[in-house]
Every structure is written in C-alpha cells, then in structure tokens.
Design a protein that fits this description.
By secondary structure, this protein is α+β, with helices and mostly antiparallel strands. The chain folds into two domains: about 5-85, F0F1 ATP synthase delta/epsilon subunit, N-terminal (ATP Synthase, domain 1); about 85-135, Single alpha-helices involved in coiled-coils or other helix-helix interfaces (Up-down Bundle), CATH 1.20.5. The protein contains two helices and eight strands. The protein has helices at about 90-105, 110-135, and strands at about 5-10, 15-20, 20-25, 30-35, 40-55, 55-70, 75-80, 80-85. Strands 1, 2, 3, 4, 5, 6, 7 and 8 form an eight-stranded mixed beta sheet that branches. Strand 5 and strand 6 (about 55-70) form a beta hairpin. Helix 1 (about 90-105) packs antiparallel against helix 2. The longest helix is centred in the C-terminal third of the chain and has 28 residues, at about 110-135. About 25% of the residues are buried.
C-alpha cells in the first residue's frame, strides 16, 4: 500500500519528516483524516493535536494552527508552532494554562480576551498531547 510523505515545518525548524499511513489533523472546520491517494487539498488548521499513524504506532504533536497542503501523496504542514509529545514540558504548559485562565477571569477588552482564550487553548492542547504520550508509555 502506498504511504504519505509528511513534513511539519515551523518558522524555526523542521519538526517532523517521515512516511505515514494516515495523518489526522485539526482543520479549522473539524478534524481531517488523510490517507494515501487523498485528493489535493489546501486548508487552514486550528490549534490542536495532529496524529500520525505508522503501522501500529501513533505519533502525536501539538500544533498551534497554520496551513496544511495535500498533493501527490505528500502532506505539508506549515505550523505556527509544533511540538512532539516528548518535547512538551508539562509543568511549563500547566503554568501557561493557569496564567491564561487568570487572564480570562480578569479580562474586559475583547481583543485581549481573544488572545487569552487562544493561549488557554494552546496550553490545553499541549497538555493533552503530553498526557497521552505519558499514558502510552506507562507500564501495563
């Protein structure tokens, strides 16, 4: 069966580059599932968890929004931010979540409210991805 070539890039670095059997991404209108031979597609991404299926393994990344392009069995993600699950500092993400919650509670101005809500969403995505990784690594 053919595979997809997946590259996830931020302004700072190449975060991920490998083949995949399936990519699940947080599209701006809902979750996208991309398999080999997918039709060409260009879409925006919202902050969320991007999952890469390779056989029986699954890799999770927290992305902070961006763009996704599918063409010729290649998936290119241009992400605002992207972190592999193992790169996420849980304590730092938890502190960011608490800061964002405090800001939301104290907000009055609409623009600042949207920024604080976005920061809260990003920190929650990072925590979700990190917790899933740790749960998968726990002895059974």
């Amino acid at each position: 069966m053919p595979r997809l070539r997946l590259d996830i890039v931020t302004a700072e670095r190449l975060v991920y580059s490998d083949e995949a059997d399936m990519v699940t991404a947080p599209g701006s209108l809902g979750e996208l599932g991309i398999l080999p031979r997918h039709a060409p597609l260009l879409t925006t991404l919202r902050p969320g968890e991007l999952r890469v299926k390779q056989g029986t393994d699954e890799v999770s990344l927290a992305i902070g929004g961006g763009f996704l392009e599918v063409r010729d069995n290649r998936v290119l993600v241009l992400a605002d931010t992207a972190e592999r699950a193992e790169e996420i500092d849980v304590e730092r993400a938890r502190a960011a979540e608490e800061r964002a919650q405090r800001l939301l509670a104290e907000m009055g101005e609409t623009q600042d409210l949207a920024q604080a809500a976005a920061a809260l969403q990003r920190s929650r995505v990072r925590l979700k991805v990190a917790r899933r990784r740790r749960a998968e690594e726990a002895p059974r």
